[in-house]
């Protein structure tokens, strides 16, 4: 009784879907590496995140799969695409993709991959039949258990909320031109820049 | 047929992490550098979830809760990182990372 699949499901089909999602992940990650325009790279990155979300759903974490699509492929990548389109003055793709230093910068991570692969294949354990399926109810019980035997993750959860608030305030402070000048005045006063890129602050 | 081998999940996570690292180190566009960081964070999340299947009972759930916090931290990181990109491109009007080597001079 492995937790990956509901009762009666076929592991052969699960393995086939895993191969499919792994291919999507690898191809889309390669697309991020090789694409010329940052918008193409962002779309490839969304594809890789959707593939990873499919793998989450296959290996016993349906809740994380949903969160991955909602927060990562939805919210975070929306922000990235939005900023690229706001800042893009049709020149982003003229930045050269690679330079001479890219060659040593690619060799070192490949060495890391070889070492990781060796270590992982030497120490791998099989999936535990008693592992739990990560559905909403058990995860919520484990996270928000405030009793004496609780894990204490609820405190971390509250702290992450405060951190997100601080990050939003920091982003507004960083992206705004001047704190005491209204946006439309700042856009006109700054010569050499079109008024349009003041919208990046919103 | 056997269930999905955890080793395959770990190897896939390692491969995605390394591709993300190459993107961060080799690409010159600063948007691509940020996206490489996101790719690496995703790979580590996948590794967490893969390892959580090798543990019994509640321990397997704890391995699935850490990615939740990682995703929240990644949202904060993307928020501040993109604000910094807006901030520095305002002065230089380019997204080439070589244009921002001022601290070397």
Give an overview of the whole structure.
The complex is a heterodimer of chains A (202) and B (105). Chain A is an all-alpha fold and 202 residues long. Helix content of chain A is 65%, strand content 0%. The longest helix of chain A is centred in the middle third of the chain and has 26 residues. By secondary structure, chain B is mostly helical. Chain B has 3 helices and no strands. In chain B, helix 1 runs antiparallel to helix 2. Chains A and B meet through helix 1, helix 2, helix 3, helix 4 and helix 5 of A and helix 1, helix 2 and helix 3 of B.
Q: Assign an overall shape of chain B.
A: elongated
Low-confidence regions of chain A? 191-202
Oligomeric nature of the chains: heterodimer
Please indicate the percent range of residues of chain B in DSSP E strands (runs of 2 or more): under 5%
Give the SSE string of chain A: HHHHHHH
Radius of gyration of chain B: 18 Å
Number of strands of chain A: 0
Task: Break the fold down into its secondary structure elements and pairings.
The complex is a heterodimer of chains A (202) and B (105).
Chain A: H1 11-34, H2 38-58, H3 62-87, H4 102-123, H5 136-143, H6 153-175, H7 183-189
Helix pairs in contact in A: 1-2, 2-3
Chain B: H1 6-26, H2 30-52, H3 58-92
Helix pairs in contact in B: 1-2, 2-3
What key phrases describe this protein's structure?
heterodimer; A: 202 residues; mainly alpha; 7 helices; disordered C terminus; B: 105 residues; 3 helices; 75% helix; elongated
What's a concise summary of this model?
The complex is a heterodimer of chains A (202) and B (105). Chain A is an all-alpha fold.
């Amino acid at each position: 009784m492995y937790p990956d699949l509901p009762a009666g499901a076929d592991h052969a089909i699960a393995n086939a879907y895993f191969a499919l999602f792994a291919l999507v992940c690898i191809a889309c990650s390669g697309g991020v590496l090789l694409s010329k325009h940052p918008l193409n790279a962002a779309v490839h990155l969304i594809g890789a995140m959707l593939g990873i979300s499919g793998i989450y759903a296959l290996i016993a974490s349906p809740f994380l799969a949903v969160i991955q699509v909602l927060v990562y492929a939805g919210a975070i990548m929306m922000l990235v695409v939005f900023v690229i389109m706001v800042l893009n003055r049709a020149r982003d793709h003229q930045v050269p993709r690679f330079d001479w230093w890219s060659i040593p910068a690619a060799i070192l991570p490949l060495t890391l991959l070889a070492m990781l692969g060796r270590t992982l294949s030497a120490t791998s354990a099989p999936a535990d039949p008693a592992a739990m399926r990560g559905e909403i109810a058990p995860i919520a019980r484990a996270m928000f258990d405030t009793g004496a035997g609780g894990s204490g993750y609820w405190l971390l959860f509250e702290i992450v909320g405060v951190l997100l608030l601080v990050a939003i305030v920091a982003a507004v402070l960083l992206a705004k031109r001047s704190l005491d000048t209204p946006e439309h005045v700042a856009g006109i006063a700054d010569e050499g820049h079109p008024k349009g890129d003041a919208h990046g602050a919103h | 047929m056997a269930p999905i081998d955890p080793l395959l999940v770990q190897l896939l996570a390692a491969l995605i992490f390394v591709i993300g690292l190459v993107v961060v180190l080799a690409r010159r566009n600063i948007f691509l550098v940020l996206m490489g960081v996101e790719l690496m964070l995703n790979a580590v999340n996948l590794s967490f979830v893969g390892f959580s299947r090798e543990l019994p009972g509640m321990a397997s759930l704890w391995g699935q809760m850490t990615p939740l916090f990682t995703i929240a931290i990644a949202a904060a990181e993307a928020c501040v990182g993109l604000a910094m990109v807006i901030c520095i491109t305002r002065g230089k009007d380019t997204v080439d990372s070589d244009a921002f080597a001022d601290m070397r001079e």
